[in-house]
Design brief:
By secondary structure, the protein is an alpha/beta fold. The protein has helices at residues 5-12, 25-37, 47-62, 117-127, 146-160, 180-195, 217-222, 230-240, 277-289, 314-328, and strands at residues 17-18, 21-22, 69-76, 82-89, 99-103, 130-134, 173-178, 203-206, 266-273, 294-303. An 8-stranded mixed β-sheet has the order 3-4-6-5-7-8-9-10, with helices on both faces. It has a two-stranded antiparallel sheet with strand order 1-2. Helix 4 (117-127) crosses helix 10 (314-328).
């Protein structure tokens, strides 16, 4: 049941306006309730507790969503690793259909397929296509580039098993993810180009991180108070990246890549109140400069993480419905 508008205003106070945008009332309510609960910052917790806390917070706002079928799989990763995966088939789907290989976010150090179960169910049902949610090895147990290597191995496996997954052909596989998962999706496209492997049908980049080497204006504008914080990003970078690694490495910072030609068509989604907003949009612009087919969509009132808020926010649902509509056109 939606909270009455008068009560929402009482709880959230005056609308937040910043950079010519107004924070959506659903987002304001979620942020205010989190503050009222006095929850500790995830980055301040020991890593196991932080992982559990982030998952719990996501599950509180994701909601439960029916699905035709979900099936757990094991997909081979890099270096002999085994990756838990989950295949979602929407209700009433028969015959071969395209597939989205989805990569979860969490700063390369947090998150798993369970944390994104509700979001993937929602995407599959709304888009009418199968979704294969992939895990990857997390840092600091497995630092850069282990996660990317796992995701590329999972992509090639998915291509090789297209018929058994009900896709009907390797050319009908999209890759996508949110936040760090979006960054990993960009890496899959570049590695595929370098290896001579077929490009995905589409790369779906939901508020991706695209430049770890610099801080664009949105980092300063929205780095505190809007879910994703500078402190969390700094902690994730320290966990994931060895100090000997250059942050301009395109596998970490795809915006820094010299050549972005020959990559899959892209659907790039950003949130107005997100520290990663500017770099996501800059990456979309650079893809277009390199003659890529790009659709760019900003949701000005939303915050980072809205993919996992479909159970608590009509505005988040509307934004994710747009992503599902794009997937339906594959």
């Amino acid at each position: 049941m939606r909270t009455p508008a008068a009560l929402r205003r009482l709880v959230t106070g005056k609308p937040v306006e910043l950079d010519g945008q107004t924070l959506d009332s659903d987002m304001a309510m979620i942020l205010r309730l989190e503050k009222m609960a006095g929850l500790p910052r995830v980055e301040s917790l020991p890593l196991p507790a932080g992982r559990a806390a982030l998952k719990q917070r996501a599950l509180l706002v994701t909601g439960e969503h029916p699905i035709g079928e979900s099936r757990d799989l094991i997909v081979p990763g890099a270096d002999g690793s085994e990756l838990p995966a989950r295949l979602y088939t929407p209700r009433g789907m028969h015959g071969s259909r395209p597939l989205l290989m989805f990569i979860h976010g969490g700063g390369y150090s947090y998150g798993d397929i369970d944390m994104y179960d509700g979001a993937c169910r929602y995407l599959a049902e709304r888009s009418g296509i199968r979704v294969l949610s992939i895990s990857y090895r997390l840092a600091p147990e497995h630092r850069f580039p282990a996660g990317l290597d796992d995701c590329f191995a999972a992509y090639t496996w998915t291509q090789e098993h297209a018929s058994t997954l009900g896709i009907g052909g390797s050319g009908r596989i999209a890759v996508g993810g949110d936040s760090a998962g979006g960054t990993l999706a960009t890496g899959i496209c570049r590695l595929a180009r370098e290896a001579g492997v077929a490009q995905p049908a589409l790369q779906v980049l939901i508020y991706p991180g695209t430049d770890a080497s610099q801080r664009l204006p949105s980092h300063q504008l929205f780095g505190e108070g809007f879910w994703l914080t500078r402190g969390f990003m700094d902690r994730c970078e320290a966990l994931y990246v060895d100090p000997s690694v250059q942050l301009t490495d395109p596998r970490l910072s795809p915006l820094q890549a010299r050549d972005l030609s020959g990559l899959a068509s892209a659907y790039v989604v950003t949130a107005g109140f997100d520290p990663l907003r500017d770099e996501g949009e800059a990456y979309a612009d650079r893809l277009a400069e390199h003659r890529g087919e790009v659709e760019k969509r900003r949701h000005p009132g939303l915050i980072h993480g809205f993919l996992n808020m479909v159970g608590a926010s009509g505005s988040a649902r509307a934004a994710v419905d747009e992503i599902a509509d794009r997937l339906r056109r594959l």
